[in-house]
Amino acid sequence: MQEKPYVTVVIPVYNEEPNLPPLINRLYPVMQQIGRPFEIIFTDDGSRDDSLSILSQMAEKYPEIGVIEFNGNFGQHMAILAAFEKSHGEVVITLDADLQNPPEEIPRLVAEIEKGHDVVGTIRQKRQDTLFRRVASRIVNITTNKMTGMQMSDYGCMLRAYHRNVINNINRCEETTTFIPALAQTFSANPSEIKVAHAERAEGESKYSLYRLIRLNFDLMTGFSVVPLQLFALMGILTSVFSIAFAVFLLIRRFIIGAEVEGVFTLFAILFFFIGIIIFGIGLVGEYVGRIYQEVRKRPRYVVRKLHGFREN
To answer: 260 lies in which domain range?
Structure first.
């Protein structure tokens, strides 16, 4: 690492003990074949297995590898941001440790950056995920594009390439909750997307439960757009107009037909519907207020316990 790296590969790790040896066995030769100086930065996000021990051994064996050891579990995106701050490459690649995105695709991303693009996204082909995850992913992609105005085909694929200019702008941000692909897109002047292969997870299970996926999507939508609030305001206006029209209808009906009690349960049903809308709106506003609360506390986004293998460039 005496020569400044041209390519940096950033890999967040959380309980990936069985996947790390095959990962480095595939990744290291790929990086050597590129023929340019490189570095590989792992961030251990509070792993409870032997991931950190394996990463420390890698850092001792390979001079191009550095390991950031977190004090606890701060999440995938915070792990990536910590590595961004330590990176030196002109081209920065993010890669998951589970080998579902083949490291062999990295040269294609580097070539795309060298064509003049500053952000290169990827689209997973023949995804080896469950039907539920594929359908949910498609719904999220469509919904998020509509709400944020961005045009990304696959928000969930973390195999991406960024130019140093974009990384520098990301490093200037101090958000406590964010979604890196969308954040990078806001700084991009010439983005691109390519199709990449996708493999079935070899070992272990996905770290994203249904709840965490929902939380991530809330962060994505509320962190990059106020459209949800605007839609709710529009819904409130339409509901108010409908309520006035319905009240007028009931008044006219009372004069024509007279007093009746048969519709009382219908009124209760309508009332419960409106109450549901109100509760949903309160939750939505609370989501934005919660984000503001997290930001104003100014707590550290993550805590680094120790650095392994980093050398002066």
So the answer is: 227-297
Asked which of 16-30, 172-186, 258-272, 276-290 is least confident by mean pLDDT, the reply is: 258-272
- Pairing state of beta strands 160-163 and 91-94? antiparallel
**SS3 of residue 305 by DSSP:** strand
Looking up tokens 């929902």, which residue turns up? 214
- CATH number of the domain to which 53 belongs: 3.90.550.10
Query: Under DSSP, is residue 82 helix (H, G, I), strand (E, B) or coil?
Result: helix
What type of residue is 114? E
Do 189 and 245 lie in one domain? The reply is no
The pair of three-digit structure tokens given for residue 59, joined into one six-digit string: 């850092």
In a domain, 218, yes or no: no
Q: In this predicted model, what pLDDT tens digit does every residue of 8-67 receive, in sequence order?
A: 999 999 999 999 999 999 999 999 999 999 999 999 999 999 999 999 999 999 999 999
Tokens 């539920």, residue located:
132
Statement: residue 1 has pLDDT above 60: no
Distance CA 109, CA 262 (A): 67
Domain presence at residue 210 = no
Q: Which amino acid is at 297?
A: R
Q: Do 157 and 289 fall into the same domain?
A: no
In contact, 119 and 163? CB cutoff 8 Å: yes
Question: Which tokens belong to 39?
Answer: 């570095």
| 218: β partners | none
Residue type, 41: I
- Number of domains observed in the structure of the chain: 2
Distance CA 277, CA 283 (A): 10
Helix (H) or strand (E) holding 129: none
Closest to 19 in 3D by CA, of 207, 208, 216, 212: 207
Alpha carbon separation from 6 to 26, 33, 97, 166 (Å, rounded): 19, 13, 21, 15
Side-by-side strand order, sheet with 119-124? 191-196, 119-124, 160-163, 91-94, 7-13, 38-44, 65-70, 304-308
